[in-house]
Sequence to fold (92 residues):
Amino acid sequence: MTYVPGVTCPAEYRDVKDANECQRLAIQYGHTFEGKLTEDGNWIHGCFEWYDTKYADGGSPKGSFLKVYWNERPGATEGVYGGHKPCVYNPQ
Fold:
């Protein structure tokens, strides 16, 4: 697993598929899965690592908070805070 600052996973990585996979990965990497959000405009769509400071105000470095959520907000590539997006290694 890797984190990306944007919302597109790099080559050989893929998006986390759903909330169940998000929860499994959170636990696997020592994070806490906090649950599912619905249409929360503060965050990107999908699986993300939460942080407490708006990205525009400096955000927090990846791994600084161990809370992971799934936000059901299809098509959303931005949010007020943002969120660190995990990507899953998926070699072709």
Summary: The radius of gyration is 12 Å. The mean pLDDT is 81.
